[in-house]
Amino acid sequence: MTNLGLAARPAPVDDAAIDPFGERTARRFAVNACVLGADVRFEADDEAWLEVIEAAYGGLPAHRFPAAAPALHIELRLAEPADAASLDAPPPVHMRSGAGLLCGVMDAAHYAAIAPARRQALVVASPAMLARHPYHVRYELLEFAVFVLAQRAQGLVPLHGACVGRGGQGVLLLGESGAGKSTLALHSLLGGLDFLAEDAVFVHPDYLRATGVANYLHVTDDAFRFVDDAGVRDWIRRSPTIRRRSGVEKYEVDLRGGHGRLAPEPLQLKGVVLVSARPAERLLTPLPPNEAIARLAADQPYAAGLPGWDEFCRRCVRLGVYRLARARHPGEAVAALSAWLER
Fold first, then answer.
1. Which residue among 28, 31, 79, 263 has the highest number of C-beta atoms inside a 10 angstrom radius?
2. d(CA 133, CA 137)
3. Cβ neighbours of residue 88 under 8 Å, at least 6 residues apart?
4. Looking at residues 28-50, what average pLDDT do you find?
């Protein structure tokens, strides 16, 4: 006869057995932001993520396109403590795709998984990586997810370049690495032009309106050669430094609440400039249509393979594509751009 009073106590509940995938993990924090024309909802399981979101998108003007803003959803999760050896330097990001997913993977504890068709993404990082390498988590995982979702949801053309403007009109600055786009963007900001973006610009191909994230400007020590204002030099030098994957160190200058003005809305492109590292007698030279299209494709190989590229090129050629030669001083190039925008 069974003695009910002596029944064994239940074994301790194993959380991993109940929820092996972490599907029931509480997402205790939520933040909404308008980024690149999209309404993005971030849901996080730890307060540490709030600092990353604020560093990326806090205090930015809300850019919207004429069409209804798509709703995007990004979940942010902390991983188990990572292998200390992998934290000396962030592992390189490997891109993977399949089954409708796009992934950027550092290792098992640090990755972004994106489902463009569902307009959702998952970003995972360890507490140690957040503390030691916040730039790489923000730039290579969080912004990667936001940029891909916003671009795919709206059919934008993603470009590696900068954009500045005035009075709602903008000029797109493209060109190979080292041509001086960041220096030109800095002096455009200091010279009174509105700053839209310095590293990644997203253009709607149907009406050539450009948006970006005007959070930071990345410049090297070379930028100081042409900065005469001691206050500006001090502002830049007080900024933290980041190390690119190439090994180049740059100041990461936060533009919010600092010098200059951020573009309050997407800029209507007035033209495209290919920044050259070579000097010439004439600063701005128009390119023939066939040469312009070829140079744009060579400069932006990823974007050239996406839907919308052909329409983007056709409209850019109608506006005008120019080569901007290296000036003796960046201020001369800014003056040329300003005069062009005012025509």
1. 263
2. 7
3. none
4. 95
**What tokens were used for 247?**
């090994």
Report d(CA 263, CA 210) in Å as an integer: 10
Nearest 5°: CA angle at 39, between 263 and 111? Answer: 100
8 A C-beta contact, residue 210 and residue 201: yes
Q: Which residues pair with 212 in a beta bridge?
A: 201
- Return the structure tokens found at 227: 């900065």
Bridge partners (DSSP) listed for residue 279: 326
Q: Give every CB contact of residue 86 below 8 A, 6+ residues apart in sequence.
A: 106, 107, 109
On the question of pLDDT at 109 being above 50, the answer is yes
Distance CA 325, CA 290 (A): 20
Q: HSE (CB half, 13 Å, CA atoms) of 290?
A: 0
Question: What separation, in Å, do the N-terminal and C-terminal C-alpha atoms of the chain show?
Answer: 99
Calpha distance 305→308 (Å, rounded): 9
Q: Are 284 and 341 in contact (CB under 8 A)?
A: no
Q: Please state, in angstroms and rounded to a whole number, the distance separating the CA atoms of residues 307 and 44.
A: 33
Q: How far is CA 272 from CA 4, 20, 154, 164, 238, in A?
A: 83, 51, 21, 11, 33
- pLDDT digits 0-9 by tens, 204-250: 999 999 999 999 999 888 888 889 899 999 999 999 999 888 888 99
Average pLDDT, the chain: 90
Which residue is associated with the tokens 């948006």? 211
Tell me, what DSSP letter sits at residue 283?
Answer: S
Residue-level pLDDT at 83? 60
- Across 317-330, average pLDDT: 92
- CA 182/CA 196 separation, integer angstroms: 12
Residue showing tokens 């100081």: 224
The amino acid present at 123, given as its one-letter code, is V
DSSP characters over 135-194: HHIIIIIIHHHHHHHHHHHHTPEEEESEEEEETTEEEEEE--TTSSHHHHHHHHHHTTPE
Strand partners, 114: 102, 121
Token pair in block for residue 331: 């201020």
Amino acid at 225: R
**Closest of 215, 339, 217, 206 to residue 268, by C-alpha:** 206
